[in-house]
Amino acid sequence: MAFQPSKSKKNLTKEEGTLNMNSMMDMMTIILLFLLKSFSTEGALVTPSEELRLPVSQQGEKPKKELNVTVSKTMILVNDQVVVPALNEIPKDQMIISPLAAKLAEYAQQEKDLEIEVGKEFTHEVNIQGDENLPFEILFKVMFTCSRTEFYKMRLVTIKKG
Amino acid sequence: MAYKPSMRGKGEFLDIELDIRPVMNLMVVLIPLLIASAEWVKLGVVEINAPPAKGPSGGAGEGENQDQAKEKEMKLGLKIAIAHDGITIGNAQALLEGEQGEGPTVPLTAEGKYDFELLKKKLIEIKKKIKGKGFKDEDRVVLTASADIEYQTIITVMDYVQTYEDENGDIVALFPQINFGSILQ
């Protein structure tokens, strides 16, 4: 049988306990610093989706924000605007993808105007984000179109391994 | 001289704890915010510099001069072609043949995958042979592939073609300048 609890009041004074927050604060400070370090102010360069899985590579430099040509599984976008809605509608016998060329020429003209008006240098740079299953034919046509429309410094965006 | 501190008792020490609740509040807000905006995937870019397309402004005379200048230079013109049965290395004059004397230089492995390690070995051999012979384009390679070769394969080949590790474990450039050639028929 259990003991009967003591009836005297000597154990009634409750002990004042305080939670020790120091170690938690230490942890939070470290996490905060780590996250601040990896914080990028440039914003997301790539919007990941099912339609666009970038290929994996071992090397590569840090990407810069430039004109984006995205070739997903089904369509081509320039700076998040759909330019070619269906990849299979690209004619087989033509090297230049004409809607893409038109859009890029527009951007090139804008850049040139900027160069004249405010002195911002036209870098001729373009980031190409392609899906990993993209056939070489489409990739080649996209690159050919880019180089024809004065964006000849092409960069292929990849996911860095390791 | 400073005054001597009073020896009179001031009563008990007041035990005050620092109020860290506002700091905690701040942390609780900041940490989710930073986690949400952190980069989880590391992106990289592979640079390819295509020559600027010849515009209509480049006159015919200029072109001829360029051609003459080109003839004087020693050109290697190394090409790598990716097809479904393997990878072939060659240039305008010759194709490097496979072990059996025919077929692609680097045939598929037994599992039906591309043999990137062998490709790298062959390229290192070529690099050592041509080193110091005065080729103008000893860092350049032209990559070409069949129409339906996947992008991932091309990127992987580019990975293997650009650098290699020499005997001392240093990473040395193999053929870092990559150009793309037209689609294999």
TrEMBL record, chain A:
Keyword list, A-Z: Cell membrane, Membrane, Protein transport, Transmembrane, Transmembrane helix, Transport
Subcellular location: Cell membrane
Domain of life assignment: Bacteria
Membrane topology, as annotated: Single-pass membrane protein; Single-pass type II membrane protein
Endpoints of the signal sequence: none
Pfam families in the cross-refs: ExbD
GO molecular function terms noted in the UniProt entry: transmembrane transporter activity
Any single biological process term in GO: protein transport
GO-annotated cellular components: plasma membrane
UniProt KW Transmembrane helix keyword: yes
Family in the record: Belongs to the ExbD/TolR family.
Name assigned to this protein: Biopolymer transporter ExbD
Protein source organism: Caldithrix abyssi
TrEMBL record, chain B:
Protein localization: Cell membrane
GO CC annotation terms, alphabetical: plasma membrane
Main location: membrane
Pfam family membership, one: ExbD
Membrane topology of the entry: Single-pass membrane protein; Single-pass type II membrane protein
Keyword Transmembrane helix among record annotations: yes
UniProt xrefs under InterPro entries: ExbD (IPR003400)
One Gene Ontology biological process: protein transport
Keywords: Cell membrane, Membrane, Protein transport, Transmembrane, Transmembrane helix, Transport
MF (Gene Ontology): transmembrane transporter activity
Record's keyword annotation contains Secreted: no
Protein family membership: Belongs to the ExbD/TolR family.
Protein name as it appears in the record: Biopolymer transporter ExbD
Organism expressing this protein natively: Caldithrix abyssi
